[in-house]
Structure formats: C-alpha cells, structure tokens
Amino acid sequence: MYDVVIIGAGVSGCAIAREISKKTAKILVVDREEDVCCGTSKANSAIIHAGYDAKHGSLMAKLNVQGSRMMPQLARDLDIPYRRNGSLVVMINEEDRPALMKLYENGVANGVEDLQIVEREALRQLEPNISEDAIAALYAPMGAIVCPFTMTYALAENAATNGVEFRFNTEVTGIEALEHGWKLQTGTGEIKSKVVVNAAGVYADKFHNMVSEEKITITPRRGDYFLLDRSTEGYVHQTVFQLPGKKGKGVLVAPTVHGNIIIGPTAIDIQEKDQTATTQEGLDQIRAKCGDAVKNLPLRQTITSFAGLRAHESNHEFIIKEVKPGFVDCAGIESPGLSSAPAIGVMVADIVTQILHLEENKSFCGTRRGILNPQMLSFEDRNRLIRENPAYGTIICRCEKVTEGEIVDAIHRVPGARSVDGVKRRTRAGMGRCQGGFCSPRVIEILSRELGIPMEAITKSGGNSRLIVGTNKDRL
Known about the structure:
The chain contains 13 helices and 22 strands.
C-alpha cells in the first residue's frame, strides 16, 4: 500500500508530489497519458500572474500571490527558465477607467507589490508598439513569464530524485473506499493507498463525484493561441492584457522565455474533455481582438497555432480540501493555476501531512539541474564538451540548434521522454520555424536506439499516434 497516490501528472500534481517528498512517505503519481505534462500544463499562456485579478479573499487570490512570490527561488533551485518581465492591462476607452481602478484596488488588497496606473506617454515608453488607442494601463512589475514544460518536468524530476514513483498509461476507472484508505481500479491493475490526491485537471470532477455526495462540474474551456517565430523577439517586452471580461482575461500578447511571441487565448466552453483541436472560429476571434492593445502585430510570422483546455469550475474558485477521510481534492485549477502551482503544492502537502502525521525527510534534495545546452557555454567549454561527448557536436534540430547529446539526456532522465513530443517539450527539438519538418525522423531514430524499440513503435504523443506505419517488408 502506498501512503499517497496522486492522480494527474500536470504541474499541480508534480508540485504536490515534490512537496510531499519533503516528508517520509511512499508516493505514486499516476496518469493516463504517456508522460508528464500532457494536459493543461502543456498548452497555456506561460504567464506568472502578479495576482491582481483573482477576487480578493478567494483561495485563488491567496495562492496566486504566494505562488508568484515563490517562483524566483523555485526557478533557481530547479533550473527553470523564468523572467520577471512585468505585465500591463491596457484600457482603450476612458469610460473603462473605473474598471481599471477596481482592478488596481483589488490587486493592492491582494497584496501585489508595486502596482501602478501608467498614462499614455509612460505607457508608450514601456511598450512602443502599444495601440494608438491605448489611454492608460495597470502596470504590474511583478508579472513574469516561465517555460511551463520545463517547470513541470523539473518538479517531476526533483520529486523522482526524492523517491516519488511515476506510472504512466494508467487510467483510473474506479475508486473504492477501504477501511483504512482507498483502492483505485486502473487499466493495469489495482492500486491501494492511505491517501488519494485528485489533481486530474478537467477530469477532477469525475473522481470527486465517485466519492462525494456533493457533486461538482468541471467545464473544459478551450483557449486557442498563435505562436510567432523568434524573429519577432522584442516586439513586446511586457505581457500585454486587455481589461478582463466575464470569461477571463481576454486576448493577451506576450513574449516567451525562448524569444517567441504568444497571442491568445480564446475562452470557449466545450463538452469534450479531450478536444484540443483549434477551430477557425477560435483563431478568427484572436485575429479580431489582438490588435486592440498592440498595433501591427506580425501575424504573418505565425509558425503554429494550438489550443489547450482550462478546468473551469462554475464558482471560478480552486477546490483544495479533504472531501472524504483520506481523499483530497485539488480541482478547478484554471488560470492562475500555473502561477499558483508552488503554493498549491505546499497547501496540499500540509493537508496530507496532517492526515498521515508524516515526518521530515532528512535526505530531501531540493535542487535539480536542467538539460545541458551547449549554446550557453563559452567557445572553449563547448569544444571541450564535444571532445568528451561528440553527440553534443551533432545538431539534430537546425531551427533551435538542439544537439543529439541533449536529446539523449532528455530520454534518460526520470521520468524521461518516450515520444517525439516528449523530446520536443524537454529540448525544443521541433519547436522552431519548420515545426519538426526536418528533425523528426532523426528524433525517431534516436528514440528507437536509446529505448531499444523499433522505430514503428515510436509515437508522436503516446497511444496510437504512431508516426511510421508499415514497412517495405509489409508491402511485399
């Protein structure tokens, strides 16, 4: 029997696993997908919100501000790309000033530091490409950007270093209460645990409703995005929002830590919990709105579009509590979920520690080093590295200059890449202008070689997403 089983290997589940691993406990993370970071955590705005938007007094507001404050140290400890670039909420109609002031006052009440209202001229100093219609903005210097993939993988890797087990391709189909704990039915057998943590994203209502008489509903809210080429780097410096509406923060324009520009998202409620395909309707909405705050956006430099699902709960509030003895919800984690993840991890770990009376793990290691990027080394150190390991001198992804050595490292980490998308999110191989058009065959070859399986068994993203179907032998 495990002490703790966490359902869901997204950023919340991995943050929770790492925090609980600071105690002495036998911990398992299960996920129905083939890897960490396959749901909401892989398709979002990559924004660390300062904390001015969530309703004052809500758990969402509290954890947003706490998580934002924790992020710089977490980024240093776990080698996560992070930049405090600040954010702007732009007002384009004078009659909206009361709404802007209300947002400012809410942020001050939430404890967000250094908030200020900047007027037209100061706004243009901050963002030269701001819309000509922009009158004023709420400026939050504490706003930041992060790599959400690396953040999730870093939390998972550090948790694994401290003894946490991960089990993928394991879908939970039923939950049964035991006298002292819970039994999970899965496609790969039964799992017993003293405590279960429900961090299943858009599926969190499914597991909550299996055990609780008080039902909840999680609505998948699709967000479509455009991602622009790295040649647009510097077009905006801050994260530029429009004043929020009833369905969220509206279309934003933001830099990424890797030099791209991201534009989106939409906020379209859907029924299917797995439907992440973009739609013409969604992308047209972004095109229509994105110029309201930033002028002349170079949309012709779009290299891809994508969509992610947010786990929207009807009260727009995080649900984090013990709902049955030993069953802990971490549900309704939508924006600002990424920003709140470190604080969510602490809160859930505290609940679990109180339930199980866990003791400190004196051997806990709180640091992790990321995949070595030869481009970050001096010329002399890079040459020395290549002499020691020639794989670091072989470029596989020409767009992002990713080497074979980095891909091999990504595969052999724990948990490591098992698919083309797993490699892509860990190393950026395939994230450049050609979107994997040139490097995917070589990535497949390396995965096949390092995992010791046929190339036909390599998938894009697990399941039946095989990239090579049939061989010359099959056609004879």
